[in-house]
Amino acid sequence: MRLTRYTDYALRTLIYVGLHERRQSSIAEIARAYGISESHLTKVVHQLGRLGLIQTTRGRGGGLRLAKPPADIIVGAVVRQTEEDLALVECFAGGACAITAPCRLRRALGEALAAFLAVLDGYTLADLLGGSDGIEIATLLGLPSPMIEVAPHLCPSTNILVE
């Protein structure tokens, strides 16, 4: 499974804005921090706004900020909403395959995709921002250290404690 650059940029944008919650961020500063295309990021930010994940304010003093608390942003949902196509093989998208009916590969890949998304559903943006990893990411991006407290919880798909 490989996520598109679009989804990668969406997740990175949410991480940046989440770590920088105290003030609004701009597309230009996010693009500069990650070394990515501003024009491509603009499309991503537009969709994140339409999805209700970030608020955008135009004009002087404008910028981006999270539209909801990081704990309410589920990583698996973001992936589903930003990936154009989660069809791992042609038959998932209704394409023709000579062995579709009895194919066990299709079932195995379907289970693998469901497991992949279930694991991501066990994480919120707050999980990605918390602890020493969030502080290290903020430092690498040139941001002040985040002040986000994240309580440990059990990942529903694995029953592993996530800090």
Write the layout of secondary structure elements.
Elements: H1 5-19, H2 27-34, H3 38-50, E1 54-57, E2 63-66, H4 75-82, H5 104-121, H6 125-129, H7 131-140, E3 153-154, E4 161-162
Antiparallel strand pairs: 1-2, 3-4
Helix pairs in contact: 1-3, 1-4, 2-3, 4-5
Pfam family, one: Rrf2
Keywords: DNA-binding
Protein name: HTH-type transcriptional repressor NsrR
Keywords:
Arc Repressor Mutant, subunit A; two-stranded antiparallel ribbon; 163 residues; mainly alpha; HTH-type transcriptional repressor NsrR; WH-like_DNA-bd_sf; 7% strand
How is this structure best described in words?
It is a single chain. The protein is mostly helical and 163 residues long. It has one domain: Winged helix-like DNA-binding domain superfamily/Winged helix DNA-binding domain (Arc Repressor Mutant, subunit A, Orthogonal Bundle), CATH 1.10.10. The protein contains seven helices and four strands, in the order H-H-H-E-E-H-H-H-H-E-E. Strands 1-2 form a two-stranded antiparallel sheet. A two-stranded antiparallel ribbon has the order 3-4. It starts with a helix and ends with a strand. The relative contact order is 0.16. The mean pLDDT is 84. It comes from Methylobacterium cerastii. InterPro entries: Tscrpt_reg_Rrf2 (IPR000944), WH-like_DNA-bd_sf (IPR036388), WH_DNA-bd_sf (IPR036390).
